[in-house]
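To illustrate the input format used throughout this study, we show a single complete record. The first block contains the structure-token representation of the backbone; no residue identities are included at this stage. The design step must infer an amino acid for every position from geometry alone.
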């Protein structure tokens, strides 16, 4: 299926096929099943979704960031956890193909693109989330590579991933300057998955943790060296902020569509719900913020396509979109009455997902700090 150029409309048509085939309500509910989730990511790969931004010479499609954001938006309308799982594995193919020499990256990138391998990015530890420079996973240089020891928590895809981009401290006490990032393989000696289990939304993102007990990363498995890793992580996080904001837009858009349709069918006091002004204004309020969030997200995504500095815009888009989701999703759920709590509706899952969206890739408070500092710098 890889003819390497697709229009946005072609991507969208293929995504709809994936959604029909692999996102049925039955597969989004019930007990967590790692086999089912791996199969879902393989199916996503078969539609090219693991190579959206990966350069053509590495077997991907080299599509602009805005395509990825649009697809993430639609996917999250059905399920935020699955959208995060797909995007996060894809990020690893993108990251490794971009930063490693091709003779090294080709060990893994083809497998990531076909879905044979699943990837994830591990920064967070139980004792260090927002304060990324405080991580304690240790990387000690040896004659044949780097010995990694420590624990990571709250990592998307960690339950099923084969490849981990792991951030670790090479010089304890040096903070950001000493942080480096390595490829870690789940099949390697010293790798151990944790038994963490989280809420059902996080479960569909395959979120969990792992421990490294003196795991040996080869010298050429150093992806981001000390001095560069922290900066590169912060640079790439702007994109993540925009696609998480896009996912909030997707959840809000789908919830508004469902509530609007319900308001036409359901009657109270002799009228459709939508004919009651008090009810209709709840949807109108959501529509206002949805429009504003979409504009911000599209602007930020376009700025990334144009390789502009989006630090400020990405932070604003994420703060606005996550807050809009936090504010309106519970109101839309309420507007469906008890019916909205049926599993067949995604709204209750979306309400929990909006909470996750406010934490991942920079919490609201961290982003407000960033925006505040930028105000100081720009006067
Ligand atoms: C479902 C899920 C998936 C995730 N996936 C990944 C992943 O794939 N990879 C990864 O590395 N991490 C992942 N994370 C972790 C995520 O990045 C962290 O949750 C986030 O960085 C916040 O860290 P924390 O949870 O430790 O909160 P803390 O840093 O302990 O903060 C707690 C609260 O205090 C606020 N706060 C902290 N410092 C300040 C301050 N100076 N001023 C004001 N308020 C402050 C925070 O905003 C937050 O509300 C995931 C988290 C979740 C929930």
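Output of the design step:
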């Amino acid at each position: 299926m890889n003819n390497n150029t697709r229009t946005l409309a072609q991507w969208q048509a293929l995504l709809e096929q994936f959604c029909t085939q692999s996102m049925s309500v039955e597969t989004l509910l019930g007990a967590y099943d790692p086999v089912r989730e791996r199969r879902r990511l393989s199916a996503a790969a078969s539609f090219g979704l693991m190579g959206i931004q990966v350069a053509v010479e590495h077997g991907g499609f080299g599509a602009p960031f805005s395509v990825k954001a649009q697809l993430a938006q639609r996917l999250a309308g059905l399920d935020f956890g699955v959208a995060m799982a797909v995007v996060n594995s894809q990020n690893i193919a993108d990251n490794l193909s971009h930063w490693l020499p091709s003779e090294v990256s080709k060990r893994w990138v083809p497998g990531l693109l076909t879905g044979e391998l699943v990837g994830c990015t591990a920064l967070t530890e139980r004792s260090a989330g927002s304060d990324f420079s405080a991580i304690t996973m240790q990387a000690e240089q040896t004659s044949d590579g780097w010995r990694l020891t420590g624990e990571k928590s709250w990592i998307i895809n960690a339950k099923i991933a084969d490849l981990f981009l792991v951030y670790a401290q090479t010089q304890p006490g040096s903070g950001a300057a000493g942080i480096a990032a390595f490829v870690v393989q789940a099949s390697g000696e010293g790798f151990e998955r944790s038994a963490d289990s989280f809420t059902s939304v996080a479960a569909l993102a395959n979120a969990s943790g792992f421990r490294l007990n003196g795991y040996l990363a080869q010298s050429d498995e150093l992806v981001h060296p000390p001095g560069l890793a922290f900066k590169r992580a912060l640079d790439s996080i702007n994109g993540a902020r925009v696609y998480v904001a896009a996912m909030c837009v997707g959840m809000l858009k789908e919830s508004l569509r469902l509530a609007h349709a319900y308001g036409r069918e359901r009657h109270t006091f002799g009228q459709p719900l939508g004919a009651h002004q008090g009810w209709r204004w709840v949807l109108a309020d959501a529509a206002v913020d949805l429009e504003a969030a979409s504009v911000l997200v599209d602007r930020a995504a376009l700025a990334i396509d144009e390789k502009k500095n989006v630090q400020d815009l990405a932070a604003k888009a994420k703060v606005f979109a996550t807050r809009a989701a936090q504010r309106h999703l519970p109101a839309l759920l309420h507007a469906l009455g008890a019916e909205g709590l049926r599993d067949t509706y995604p709204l209750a899952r979306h309400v929990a997902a909006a909470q996750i969206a406010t934490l991942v890739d920079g919490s609201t408070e961290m982003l407000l700090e960033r925006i505040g500092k930028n105000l100081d710098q720009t006067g």
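Structural context for interpreting the output: The pocket of flavin-adenine dinucleotide is lined by residues 88, 120-124, 129-130, 154-156, 202, 205, 207, 356, 359-360, 363, 365-366 (CB under 6 Å). The longest strand covers residues 145-155.
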